[in-house]
Amino acid sequence: MDKKEYKKIVDKKTPSSKLFTNCIKAFLFGGAICTIGQLLFALYEPMGMSEELTGGAVSVTLIFLGVLLTGLNIYPKLAKHAGAGTIVPITGFANSVASPAIEAKTEGMVMGVGAKLFTIAGPVIVYGVVSAFAAGIWYYIASIM
User: Fold this and answer.
1) Helical ranges in 14-121 per DSSP H
2) Which pLDDT score, from 0 to 100, does residue 44 have?
3) Are 85 and 26 in contact (CB under 8 A)?
């Protein structure tokens, strides 16, 4: 088999790319997630939080929603149709951390879930979340003393 025959077979077997449609879907779904974030910001801001705290509350809420939808097996179905529109926003990072942990829960909490949290996108996100949580607890304790 020469290169031309091989290329014909590969071209025949390779599915056609729907680049334009995929870009539109990614734009719409990613934009919808960002719009939800902006709506959350508008919801939290009147509660008297500073802009910085409001941004943090929106991020935490979006992460929670990403993990919740991943746990309910909704986020992967959404990502199947939305493509990169669900990967880029903060919810995509939450999904990338939660998915392996959910799949490994049969292996136990430490060797399964705990170990899988630190594999794919976990190190940066998990260390960031744990550090932020610890700093928040420390800040709270310091503020009441």
Assistant:
1) 19-44, 51-71, 75-82, 90-103, 115-117
2) 93
3) yes
- CB of 25 within 8 A of CB of 81? yes
**What angle is formed at CA 58 by the lines to CA 56 and CA 59, rounded to 5 degrees?**
65
User: Average per-residue pLDDT in the chain?
Assistant: 83
Residue with the two structure tokens 């539109």: 24
Distance, in Å, from the CA atom of 37 to the CA atom of 47, rounded to the nearest integer, reads 16
The residue type of 52 is E
User: Region 42-68: what's the mean pLDDT?
Assistant: 91
Residue 32: per-residue pLDDT = 92
Res 117: pLDDT: 65
Pair 71, 99: CB distance under 8 Å: no
